[in-house]
Structures are given as C-alpha cells and as structure tokens.
C-alpha cells in the first residue's frame, strides 16, 4: 500500500535538523503517485519545490527515475532499434544545435539514434521540435514511426508528450512555478527504449557527476553526462569538457581538451537552415567560415564514440574525423 503523500512532504520539508532524504523506494512511490494523479496538484507542487530548494540525493533521483521509466508507454519500451539515446531538453540560445549534425553523421555510419525532448515556450530557446520542422524532417509521434524513421534515415525524434505525457505535464509546471524541477533531470535520464547507450547534457556544475552516479546506482549499461553547451548534449569546444561515465555500476571520467583557443562571436540569431548549408560545405570551407560549428561537431561526435566504442579521446577524434569526412547527402 502506498504511503500517504503528505508524509513525503513532511519528511523533506521539516528543515535542516528534522528533515530527511527519502529512501529510494520512498522516492519511487512518491513519483508514482505524482504520475498517476494520486497526489493533489498542491501536494505535487509542494514536494517538487521543496526538492528544488534542498536538491535531490542520488537515491531519490534513482527512485524517481525508476517510477518514470515504469510509466513510459509500452510501445516505446518494446522498441529494440535504438543504439544511442539522447535526452535533449535544454534547447539552444547562444549557438545552433551543432550536435544534430554529429547525430546525422553518426547515423549515416550505422549507429541508430533516438532523440527525445520537449519545449518550454517561456524560455525562448531553439528546441529540437522547431529544428526538425525548419529542416523539413519528420517528427515521430508513436513507436512505429520511430522505427520507420530510423530505418529510413538512421535517427528519429519524438516529443516527450507522446512517449510520456505525465512527465511532460510535470515539466510544463514551470509556467506556474517560475522554476524548473527535478523532472527536467529525469527526462534527460529517461532512456525510454532501454537503449544500450544513453548520453545527457546538463548546465549546472556537479549535475554531470550526479547523473552518472544515478546511472551507477541503477546499474545502467553505458551512460555519459557532460556539462554541454547551454545544457544540451553538445560539447562546447571553447572549454575543457569532462565526460562522466557509468558502465554497469562502475564510474569513470574522460577529459576532452579545449578545441578552440579563441572564443568565437555568437550569432545574432539562430536559423536551423544554416545547419544544412554548413553540412554541404567542404571541410576547409567549414573550418574557415564557421570554426566554432566545425569544432563543436567533431568534439561532440568524438564524445559519442567514446561512450559507444569505449575509445580514448585521441582515437575517438580520429574516428570522428573519418565519420565526418564520409558523410553523405543531407537528409531531406
């Protein structure tokens, strides 16, 4: 029998001295009640905001994530056509989503990729759903379409609303709270199809390591998290990057060096069509016209290969360059 939800609010909200962290099982039950509608809107908001102020423990996040994964639509759980899962929830504000080009090149090399995300209108960011629309790419709304898109072009995107509407509803509560909650973290870590590899990007310090620790707690197979550009699954080539990796309960890190010595001027506006134009340029033209974009693509592609093939950075970078050189026509 489920614990009365108010007891979880009480446990977390009593303060520094009397309050406590939830156990993993308690957290799983609490999230299950939130997702099923057993918790009232007032209770739900109280717990999420208390956790926002105090921050969640690894055990709490592991419990929350277990409940979220259980509530993924069964049709997506049954998919076995995904090699790499990307939770893309931050959106882009400073730079174009160059990681999309890394995904396309990787897919053309034979790695099957599924991306999922959502949009928060008030944030005024460029989200993947808009990117796909501007590029004329199909957006999957069910598991069969994911399978079809991957068979046709090697990658697919599905909105969180279609694969896990309850979790998306919790994320959209930001419009009421004015703050994000741990649900954004959980969506990134969701890996709804149980893909062999899962890659996350975060913005805040220490959250990258925490993602890996949660993955290790749950014995997830191959998971990596970075402090990505704008919080996305993209390496910022202007800074050093640390990949936090969890493989079946074991933790490790891989250091990626700075790829650009000089900081580049960010574009005044973000147009997804520029990604297609960049793809069609020669390597020399790419490096000359947009050194940031080129470095971001190669660095991000390298990070994907480090996770998937267990390569060191130098080997991954060499393979990334080869994969990029071998890219074919831009998907229409």
From TrEMBL:
Where is the Glycosyl transferase family domain positioned along the sequence?
Answer: 102-274
Could you provide one GO biological process annotation from this protein's UniProt record? L-tryptophan biosynthetic process
Source domain of life is Bacteria
Q: Amino-acid biosynthesis: present as a keyword of the record?
A: yes
Instruction: State if Iron is listed as a keyword.
Output: no
Q: Which UniProt keywords apply?
A: Amino-acid biosynthesis, Aromatic amino acid biosynthesis, Glycosyltransferase, Transferase, Tryptophan biosynthesis
| Source species | Saccharobesus litoralis
Coiled-coil positions are none
The protein here is known as: Glycosyl transferase family protein
Cite the GO molecular-function annotations of the record: anthranilate phosphoribosyltransferase activity
Q: Where is the Glycosyl transferase family 3 N-terminal domain?
A: 7-70
GO CC annotations, alphabetized: cytosol
């Amino acid at each position: 029998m489920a614990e009365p939800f108010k007891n979880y609010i009480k446990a977390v909200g009593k303060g520094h001295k009397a309050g406590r962290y939830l156990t993993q099982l308690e957290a799983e039950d609490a999230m299950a009640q939130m997702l099923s509608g057993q918790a009232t809107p007032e209770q739900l908001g109280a717990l999420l905001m208390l956790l926002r102020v105090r921050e969640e423990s690894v055990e709490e996040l592991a419990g929350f994530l277990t409940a979220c994964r259980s509530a993924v639509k069964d049709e997506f759980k049954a998919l076995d056509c995904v090699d790499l899962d990307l939770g893309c929830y931050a959106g882009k504000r400073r730079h174009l989503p160059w990681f999309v080009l890394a995904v396309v090149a990787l897919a053309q090399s034979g790695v099957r990729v599924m991306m999922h995300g959502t949009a928060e209108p008030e944030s005024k960011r460029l989200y993947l759903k808009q990117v796909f629309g501007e590029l004329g790419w199909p957006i999957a709304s069910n598991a069969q379409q994911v399978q079809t898109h991957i068979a046709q072009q090697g990658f697919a995107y599905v909105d969180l609303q279609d694969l896990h509407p309850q979790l998306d509803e919790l994320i959209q509560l930001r419009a009421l709270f004015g703050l994000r909650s741990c649900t954004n973290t959980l969506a990134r870590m969701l890996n709804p199809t149980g893909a062999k590899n899962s890659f996350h990007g975060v913005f805040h310090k220490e959250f990258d390591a925490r993602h890996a620790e949660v993955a290790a707690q749950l014995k997830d197979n191959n998971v990596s998290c970075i402090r990505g550009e704008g919080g996305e699954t993209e390496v910022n080539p202007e800074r050093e990057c640390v990949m936090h990796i969890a493989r079946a309960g074991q933790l490790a890190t891989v250091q990626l060096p700075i790829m650009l010595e000089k900081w580049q001027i960010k574009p005044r506006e973000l147009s997804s069509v520029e990604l297609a134009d960049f793809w069609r340029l020669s390597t020399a033209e790419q490096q000359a016209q947009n050194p940031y974009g080129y470095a971001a693509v190669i660095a991000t592609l390298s990070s994907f290969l480090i996770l998937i093939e267990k390569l060191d950075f130098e080997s991954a970078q060499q393979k990334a360059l080869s994969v990029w050189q071998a890219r074919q026509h831009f998907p229409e």
